[in-house]
Design a protein that fits this description.
This protein has 349 residues and is an alpha/beta fold. Helix content is 31%, strand content 19%. The strands form two sheets. The chain has an eleven-stranded mixed β-sheet, sandwiched between helices. The structure holds threonylcarbamoyladenylate and magnesium ion.
Protein backbone atom coordinates (compact mmCIF):
# COMPACT_ATOMS: atom_id res chain seq x y z
CA UNK A 1 0.00 0.00 0.00
CA UNK A 2 1.17 3.51 -0.84
CA UNK A 3 1.14 5.73 2.25
CA UNK A 4 0.37 9.38 1.61
CA UNK A 5 2.09 11.82 3.98
CA UNK A 6 0.51 15.26 4.44
CA UNK A 7 1.79 18.07 6.58
CA UNK A 8 -0.08 20.74 8.53
CA UNK A 9 0.05 22.64 11.80
CA UNK A 10 -2.57 23.21 14.48
CA UNK A 11 -2.55 26.89 13.53
CA UNK A 12 -3.03 26.17 9.84
CA UNK A 13 -5.29 23.19 9.41
CA UNK A 14 -5.56 21.96 5.82
CA UNK A 15 -9.33 21.40 5.58
CA UNK A 16 -9.08 19.67 2.22
CA UNK A 17 -6.63 17.06 3.51
CA UNK A 18 -8.62 16.62 6.74
CA UNK A 19 -11.70 15.86 4.65
CA UNK A 20 -9.71 13.35 2.63
CA UNK A 21 -8.39 11.72 5.82
CA UNK A 22 -11.92 11.63 7.26
CA UNK A 23 -13.14 9.84 4.14
CA UNK A 24 -10.36 7.26 4.43
CA UNK A 25 -11.48 6.53 8.00
CA UNK A 26 -15.17 6.36 7.04
CA UNK A 27 -14.23 3.84 4.34
CA UNK A 28 -12.51 1.58 6.89
CA UNK A 29 -8.97 2.81 6.19
CA UNK A 30 -6.25 3.89 8.62
CA UNK A 31 -4.74 7.34 9.25
CA UNK A 32 -1.88 8.13 11.65
CA UNK A 33 -2.25 11.55 13.25
CA UNK A 34 -0.74 13.78 15.94
CA UNK A 35 -2.20 14.17 19.41
CA UNK A 36 -0.75 16.20 22.28
CA UNK A 37 0.56 13.03 23.95
CA UNK A 38 1.95 10.79 21.17
CA UNK A 39 1.02 10.04 17.55
CA UNK A 40 -2.05 7.81 17.15
CA UNK A 41 -2.92 5.13 14.58
CA UNK A 42 -6.57 5.86 13.81
CA UNK A 43 -9.44 3.80 12.47
CA UNK A 44 -13.25 4.08 12.75
CA UNK A 45 -13.97 2.97 16.33
CA UNK A 46 -17.47 1.74 15.47
CA UNK A 47 -16.31 -0.43 12.56
CA UNK A 48 -15.03 -3.86 13.66
CA UNK A 49 -13.06 -4.28 10.42
CA UNK A 50 -11.15 -1.07 11.11
CA UNK A 51 -10.16 -2.25 14.57
CA UNK A 52 -8.96 -5.55 13.09
CA UNK A 53 -6.86 -3.62 10.64
CA UNK A 54 -5.35 -1.53 13.45
CA UNK A 55 -4.25 -4.67 15.29
CA UNK A 56 -2.74 -6.08 12.10
CA UNK A 57 -0.92 -2.84 11.19
CA UNK A 58 0.56 -2.59 14.69
CA UNK A 59 1.29 -6.28 15.09
CA UNK A 60 -0.65 -6.00 18.35
CA UNK A 61 -2.37 -8.84 20.25
CA UNK A 62 -6.13 -8.39 19.76
CA UNK A 63 -6.91 -8.74 23.48
CA UNK A 64 -5.31 -5.33 24.05
CA UNK A 65 -8.16 -2.81 23.78
CA UNK A 66 -8.07 0.50 21.88
CA UNK A 67 -8.90 3.99 23.10
CA UNK A 68 -11.93 5.64 21.46
CA UNK A 69 -11.14 9.27 20.66
CA UNK A 70 -13.99 11.79 20.55
CA UNK A 71 -14.10 15.51 19.78
CA UNK A 72 -17.29 16.61 21.57
CA UNK A 73 -19.04 15.80 24.84
CA UNK A 74 -22.17 14.70 22.94
CA UNK A 75 -20.21 11.83 21.44
CA UNK A 76 -19.54 10.35 24.87
CA UNK A 77 -23.12 9.27 25.51
CA UNK A 78 -23.18 7.13 22.36
CA UNK A 79 -20.21 4.95 23.34
CA UNK A 80 -20.86 4.45 27.06
CA UNK A 81 -23.75 2.88 28.97
CA UNK A 82 -24.00 5.73 31.43
CA UNK A 83 -21.96 8.77 32.39
CA UNK A 84 -21.26 8.74 36.11
CA UNK A 85 -20.91 12.04 37.93
CA UNK A 86 -17.19 11.42 38.40
CA UNK A 87 -16.77 11.26 34.62
CA UNK A 88 -18.71 14.50 34.17
CA UNK A 89 -16.44 16.24 36.64
CA UNK A 90 -13.24 14.86 35.14
CA UNK A 91 -14.34 15.78 31.62
CA UNK A 92 -15.20 19.29 32.67
CA UNK A 93 -11.80 19.80 34.27
CA UNK A 94 -9.43 17.80 32.01
CA UNK A 95 -11.02 17.44 28.54
CA UNK A 96 -9.93 18.10 25.94
CA UNK A 97 -6.60 16.78 27.23
CA UNK A 98 -4.35 13.85 28.11
CA UNK A 99 -6.84 11.88 30.20
CA UNK A 100 -8.50 8.58 29.24
CA UNK A 101 -11.50 7.28 31.19
CA UNK A 102 -12.62 3.66 31.35
CA UNK A 103 -16.43 3.34 31.45
CA UNK A 104 -19.01 0.63 30.74
CA UNK A 105 -19.44 0.39 26.98
CA UNK A 106 -22.64 0.79 25.03
CA UNK A 107 -23.69 -1.83 22.43
CA UNK A 108 -22.57 0.58 19.69
CA UNK A 109 -18.90 -0.13 20.41
CA UNK A 110 -17.81 -3.42 18.84
CA UNK A 111 -15.89 -5.95 20.94
CA UNK A 112 -13.14 -5.77 18.33
CA UNK A 113 -12.43 -2.24 19.57
CA UNK A 114 -12.52 -3.11 23.28
CA UNK A 115 -10.51 -6.32 23.01
CA UNK A 116 -13.56 -8.32 24.09
CA UNK A 117 -14.19 -6.24 27.23
CA UNK A 118 -17.53 -4.75 28.35
CA UNK A 119 -15.73 -1.53 29.21
CA UNK A 120 -14.42 1.12 26.85
CA UNK A 121 -11.56 3.62 27.09
CA UNK A 122 -12.52 7.14 25.94
CA UNK A 123 -10.41 10.26 25.46
CA UNK A 124 -10.98 13.71 24.00
CA UNK A 125 -7.59 14.91 22.74
CA UNK A 126 -6.62 18.58 22.84
CA UNK A 127 -4.65 18.63 19.58
CA UNK A 128 -6.73 20.55 17.01
CA UNK A 129 -5.65 18.42 14.06
CA UNK A 130 -6.79 15.34 15.97
CA UNK A 131 -10.15 16.88 16.81
CA UNK A 132 -10.84 18.06 13.28
CA UNK A 133 -9.94 14.61 11.98
CA UNK A 134 -12.27 12.92 14.49
CA UNK A 135 -15.14 15.17 13.39
CA UNK A 136 -14.39 14.54 9.70
CA UNK A 137 -14.41 10.79 10.39
CA UNK A 138 -17.88 10.87 11.94
CA UNK A 139 -16.95 11.38 15.58
CA UNK A 140 -15.33 8.15 16.85
CA UNK A 141 -11.71 7.26 16.15
CA UNK A 142 -10.04 4.25 17.76
CA UNK A 143 -6.35 5.01 18.12
CA UNK A 144 -3.53 3.22 19.85
CA UNK A 145 -0.10 4.82 19.75
CA UNK A 146 1.25 4.80 16.17
CA UNK A 147 4.15 2.43 16.81
CA UNK A 148 4.66 -1.19 15.92
CA UNK A 149 3.86 -3.27 19.01
CA UNK A 150 6.72 -3.28 21.53
CA UNK A 151 8.48 -0.15 20.23
CA UNK A 152 8.44 3.20 22.04
CA UNK A 153 5.43 5.37 21.07
CA UNK A 154 6.31 7.89 18.35
CA UNK A 155 6.57 11.53 19.39
CA UNK A 156 8.03 12.71 16.07
CA UNK A 157 6.65 11.84 12.64
CA UNK A 158 9.89 10.22 11.45
CA UNK A 159 9.22 7.27 13.73
CA UNK A 160 5.58 6.98 12.64
CA UNK A 161 6.80 6.54 9.06
CA UNK A 162 9.48 4.11 10.15
CA UNK A 163 6.91 1.86 11.83
CA UNK A 164 3.83 2.31 9.61
CA UNK A 165 4.92 3.22 6.08
CA UNK A 166 3.07 0.92 3.67
CA UNK A 167 0.63 -0.18 6.40
CA UNK A 168 -1.70 2.84 6.55
CA UNK A 169 -3.39 4.98 3.88
CA UNK A 170 -2.24 8.31 5.28
CA UNK A 171 0.09 9.87 7.85
CA UNK A 172 -0.64 13.42 9.01
CA UNK A 173 2.60 15.16 9.98
CA UNK A 174 1.71 17.73 12.61
CA UNK A 175 5.23 18.28 13.94
CA UNK A 176 6.63 17.12 17.27
CA UNK A 177 4.13 16.35 20.04
CA UNK A 178 3.87 18.47 23.19
CA UNK A 179 3.72 16.00 26.06
CA UNK A 180 5.58 12.92 24.85
CA UNK A 181 4.04 10.26 27.11
CA UNK A 182 0.65 8.57 26.63
CA UNK A 183 -2.46 9.80 28.45
CA UNK A 184 -3.25 9.04 32.07
CA UNK A 185 -5.80 6.20 32.22
CA UNK A 186 -8.36 6.23 35.05
CA UNK A 187 -10.84 3.40 35.53
CA UNK A 188 -14.26 4.61 36.68
CA UNK A 189 -15.95 1.20 36.60
CA UNK A 190 -14.65 -0.07 39.96
CA UNK A 191 -15.71 1.08 43.45
CA UNK A 192 -13.08 3.78 43.61
CA UNK A 193 -11.49 5.53 40.64
CA UNK A 194 -8.18 3.83 39.87
CA UNK A 195 -5.19 4.96 37.81
CA UNK A 196 -4.22 2.18 35.41
CA UNK A 197 -1.52 4.17 33.60
CA UNK A 198 0.17 7.29 35.01
CA UNK A 199 0.61 10.30 32.73
CA UNK A 200 0.85 14.06 32.55
CA UNK A 201 -2.35 14.38 34.61
CA UNK A 202 -1.22 13.10 37.99
CA UNK A 203 -3.01 11.59 40.94
CA UNK A 204 -2.77 14.98 42.67
CA UNK A 205 -4.51 16.59 39.70
CA UNK A 206 -7.26 13.98 39.74
CA UNK A 207 -7.73 14.42 43.49
CA UNK A 208 -8.65 18.05 42.95
CA UNK A 209 -11.85 16.74 41.37
CA UNK A 210 -12.36 13.28 42.93
CA UNK A 211 -12.17 12.68 46.65
CA UNK A 212 -10.17 9.46 46.50
CA UNK A 213 -8.05 7.96 43.75
CA UNK A 214 -6.33 4.59 43.90
CA UNK A 215 -3.46 3.27 41.82
CA UNK A 216 -2.97 -0.08 40.20
CA UNK A 217 -0.37 -1.86 42.40
CA UNK A 218 1.63 -2.92 39.39
CA UNK A 219 2.52 0.57 38.11
CA UNK A 220 6.01 0.84 39.56
CA UNK A 221 7.01 -2.81 40.15
CA UNK A 222 6.74 -6.19 38.54
CA UNK A 223 6.93 -8.26 41.77
CA UNK A 224 3.42 -7.52 43.02
CA UNK A 225 2.31 -10.94 41.79
CA UNK A 226 -0.64 -9.24 40.12
CA UNK A 227 -1.58 -8.72 36.50
CA UNK A 228 -1.88 -5.06 35.44
CA UNK A 229 -5.50 -3.95 35.06
CA UNK A 230 -4.92 -2.26 31.69
CA UNK A 231 -4.26 -5.21 29.40
CA UNK A 232 -1.64 -3.22 27.46
CA UNK A 233 0.45 -2.62 30.57
CA UNK A 234 1.32 -6.32 30.89
CA UNK A 235 3.40 -6.34 27.73
CA UNK A 236 7.06 -5.39 27.74
CA UNK A 237 6.53 -2.05 26.08
CA UNK A 238 8.60 0.90 25.09
CA UNK A 239 11.71 -1.23 24.84
CA UNK A 240 14.85 -0.11 23.03
CA UNK A 241 16.89 -2.85 21.36
CA UNK A 242 19.88 -2.25 23.66
CA UNK A 243 20.04 -3.66 27.18
CA UNK A 244 18.82 -0.84 29.45
CA UNK A 245 19.52 -0.58 33.21
CA UNK A 246 18.43 2.24 35.54
CA UNK A 247 20.97 3.39 38.14
CA UNK A 248 19.60 4.96 41.30
CA UNK A 249 21.60 6.82 43.94
CA UNK A 250 23.48 10.01 44.78
CA UNK A 251 24.56 11.86 41.63
CA UNK A 252 28.34 11.44 42.05
CA UNK A 253 27.99 7.73 42.81
CA UNK A 254 25.73 7.20 39.80
CA UNK A 255 28.19 8.93 37.46
CA UNK A 256 31.16 6.95 38.80
CA UNK A 257 29.25 3.65 38.60
CA UNK A 258 28.04 4.22 35.06
CA UNK A 259 31.45 5.36 33.82
CA UNK A 260 33.15 2.31 35.33
CA UNK A 261 30.62 -0.03 33.72
CA UNK A 262 30.76 1.73 30.36
CA UNK A 263 34.57 1.43 30.35
CA UNK A 264 34.26 -2.29 30.99
CA UNK A 265 31.63 -2.79 28.26
CA UNK A 266 33.76 -0.79 25.83
CA UNK A 267 36.72 -3.09 26.50
CA UNK A 268 34.40 -5.91 25.44
CA UNK A 269 33.71 -3.97 22.21
CA UNK A 270 30.16 -3.09 23.20
CA UNK A 271 28.67 0.22 22.10
CA UNK A 272 27.48 2.03 25.21
CA UNK A 273 24.96 4.78 25.87
CA UNK A 274 23.77 6.92 28.78
CA UNK A 275 20.49 8.70 29.42
CA UNK A 276 21.58 11.70 31.48
CA UNK A 277 20.27 15.18 32.26
CA UNK A 278 21.44 18.63 31.16
CA UNK A 279 23.74 19.07 34.14
CA UNK A 280 25.37 15.62 34.02
CA UNK A 281 25.52 14.75 30.32
CA UNK A 282 29.05 16.13 29.86
CA UNK A 283 30.48 13.90 32.57
CA UNK A 284 29.96 10.49 31.02
CA UNK A 285 32.43 8.53 28.92
CA UNK A 286 29.89 6.36 27.06
CA UNK A 287 29.96 6.22 23.25
CA UNK A 288 26.58 7.97 23.03
CA UNK A 289 25.50 10.34 25.83
CA UNK A 290 22.08 11.98 25.64
CA UNK A 291 20.38 14.43 27.93
CA UNK A 292 16.70 13.76 28.47
CA UNK A 293 16.26 17.33 29.69
CA UNK A 294 16.31 19.31 32.87
CA UNK A 295 15.47 17.75 36.25
CA UNK A 296 13.79 20.95 37.43
CA UNK A 297 11.47 20.87 34.39
CA UNK A 298 10.29 17.31 34.17
CA UNK A 299 8.05 18.12 31.21
CA UNK A 300 11.22 18.34 29.11
CA UNK A 301 12.17 14.80 30.13
CA UNK A 302 8.69 13.45 29.39
CA UNK A 303 8.77 15.06 25.95
CA UNK A 304 12.16 13.67 24.91
CA UNK A 305 12.33 10.25 26.55
CA UNK A 306 10.79 8.12 23.77
CA UNK A 307 12.68 9.93 21.02
CA UNK A 308 15.93 9.27 22.87
CA UNK A 309 15.11 5.58 23.32
CA UNK A 310 14.53 5.35 19.56
CA UNK A 311 17.76 7.20 18.78
CA UNK A 312 19.76 4.64 20.73
CA UNK A 313 18.29 2.04 18.37
CA UNK A 314 19.20 4.14 15.32
CA UNK A 315 22.77 4.29 16.58
CA UNK A 316 22.91 0.56 17.41
CA UNK A 317 23.76 1.12 21.06
CA UNK A 318 24.00 -2.25 22.80
CA UNK A 319 24.24 -1.34 26.50
CA UNK A 320 22.37 1.66 27.94
CA UNK A 321 22.44 3.11 31.44
CA UNK A 322 19.86 5.64 32.59
CA UNK A 323 19.83 7.95 35.57
CA UNK A 324 16.70 7.49 37.70
CA UNK A 325 14.10 10.25 38.08
CA UNK A 326 11.86 11.33 40.95
CA UNK A 327 8.82 9.12 40.98
CA UNK A 328 6.25 11.69 42.06
CA UNK A 329 4.11 13.99 39.95
CA UNK A 330 4.77 13.57 36.25
CA UNK A 331 8.01 11.84 37.28
CA UNK A 332 5.84 8.84 38.13
CA UNK A 333 4.83 8.53 34.48
CA UNK A 334 8.43 8.98 33.36
CA UNK A 335 9.68 6.28 35.74
CA UNK A 336 6.77 3.95 34.88
CA UNK A 337 7.81 4.04 31.18
CA UNK A 338 11.53 3.88 31.93
CA UNK A 339 11.05 0.88 34.24
CA UNK A 340 9.13 -0.94 31.53
CA UNK A 341 11.75 -0.04 28.93
CA UNK A 342 14.38 -1.49 31.27
CA UNK A 343 12.34 -4.61 32.02
CA UNK A 344 12.45 -3.34 35.66
CA UNK A 345 16.25 -3.67 35.88
CA UNK A 346 17.28 -1.15 38.54
CA UNK A 347 20.55 -1.02 40.44
CA UNK A 348 20.49 1.03 43.64
CA UNK A 349 23.92 2.18 44.77
O1 LIG B 1 -2.18 9.21 24.81
C1 LIG B 1 -2.75 8.19 24.46
O2 LIG B 1 -3.57 7.59 25.18
C2 LIG B 1 -2.41 7.64 23.05
C3 LIG B 1 -2.91 8.65 22.02
C4 LIG B 1 -2.78 8.16 20.62
O3 LIG B 1 -4.21 9.05 22.33
N1 LIG B 1 -3.00 6.36 22.86
C5 LIG B 1 -2.52 5.24 23.48
O4 LIG B 1 -3.18 4.07 23.12
O5 LIG B 1 -1.60 5.24 24.25
P1 LIG B 1 -2.58 2.61 23.38
O6 LIG B 1 -3.48 1.71 22.64
O7 LIG B 1 -1.15 2.58 22.99
O8 LIG B 1 -2.76 2.38 24.90
C6 LIG B 1 -4.05 2.17 25.41
C7 LIG B 1 -3.98 1.50 26.76
C8 LIG B 1 -3.56 0.06 26.69
O9 LIG B 1 -2.66 -0.21 27.75
C9 LIG B 1 -4.88 -0.68 26.87
O10 LIG B 1 -4.71 -1.95 27.43
C10 LIG B 1 -5.62 0.27 27.80
O11 LIG B 1 -5.30 1.54 27.31
N2 LIG B 1 -7.09 0.09 27.70
C11 LIG B 1 -7.88 0.36 26.63
N3 LIG B 1 -9.16 0.03 26.89
C12 LIG B 1 -9.18 -0.46 28.15
C13 LIG B 1 -10.22 -0.99 28.98
N4 LIG B 1 -11.47 -1.07 28.57
N5 LIG B 1 -9.88 -1.40 30.22
C14 LIG B 1 -8.60 -1.31 30.65
N6 LIG B 1 -7.57 -0.83 29.90
C15 LIG B 1 -7.86 -0.41 28.67
MG1 LIG C 1 0.84 2.09 22.94
Amino acid sequence: METKVVRMTEEQIDRERIREAGDILRDGGLVAFPTETVYGLGGDALNPQSSRRIYAAKGRPSDNPLIVHIADMDALSLVVKEIPESAQRLAKRFWPGPLTMILHKSPKVPYETTGGLDTVAVRMPANRIARELIRAAGGYVAAPSANRSGRPSPTVVKYVSEDLDGRVEMIIDGGDVEIGLESTIVDLTSDKPMILRPGYITRQHLETVLSEVEEDNTLMRDDSGQVPKAPGMKYRHYAPKGNLTIIKGAEENVIAFINAHCAKEQRDNKKTGVIATDTTVGRYCADVCKSAGCREEEETIARDLYRILREFDDENVEVIYAEAFEDSGIGQAIMNRLLKAAGYKVISI
